[in-house]
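User: Hey, quick favor. My workstation is busy. Could you predict this chain's structure for me?
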Amino acid sequence: MLPLKKNTPKKIKALLQLIDDPDEIVYSEVKQQLLLLGPVALPYLEQIWNEALNSAIVQRVEEIIEDIKLNEFTKELIHWKNHNQDDLLYGVWLVNHFQYPEISLEHLNTKIEQIKKDIWIEFAEDLTALEEVLIINHILYEVHQFNPNIAHYYAVQNNYLHHVLETKKGNNITLGILYLLIAQKLELPIFAVNIPDYLILSYINDDYNIYDAKFHSLQEATLFYINPFSKGTLLQEQDIKEFLAQINKQEKTNYFVPCTHSEVVEKLLLSIASSYAQQGNVTMYSRYKSIAQKLKEA
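Assistant: No problem, here it is.
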């Protein structure tokens, strides 16, 4: 008999009593019904997970708990995309929070705000775009000493912003996100561009609205590109073309113009998936790849 609370709702109780059924068809249906119930079923599942002695039951319950949380996480990301994706930090925090629920949004914001203030103090009126970026690069990479984590590039932790802020090391995607978040706090026209598997930024001419920029030639709209993984190295359009050739990607217009915050978070999810793939963790790779795909299609 499974350890169930006396006040367990009848429907949940009936489902949980079948969770150890040897018939895979029965278990599959039980699992589906519990997934449909969602977070409501979590306290009862967690009780079983904590108290059950049968390892097969524990494994099944653990699988259902993880899938419920994964479904809720996906729903939160899709809701953010459809209602609040102007707030990139919130979307990045949702990814962070799923794996590290103890890290608050305020914690991330405070850390980034401090870096932004250190940069802002160095700013003066009438700076050129180039001068602004050089100051950011100096404070971010020389004063705060953020660096690419080349030695452990595929470590899963590299994908979580709080870890990057603590260790001063990250991968291509998270260092790009950090740079982008700081630029937004400074109200600079710096945006991400959607090069596959990389996060390159563009500095858009102030004379163009970000949405209008997509309808102008690249020469008119983009002053230069920035590579946050290479300590803010400045790039021109030709550099991007050569880079695409090196990674065997055919040139597409959207590789050169600003992308949405949702696409940035998709990159982060795919980066996490890639990290798990490098570790040989097929289950986690598939999960994060699936979330990224659902976010893209939403």
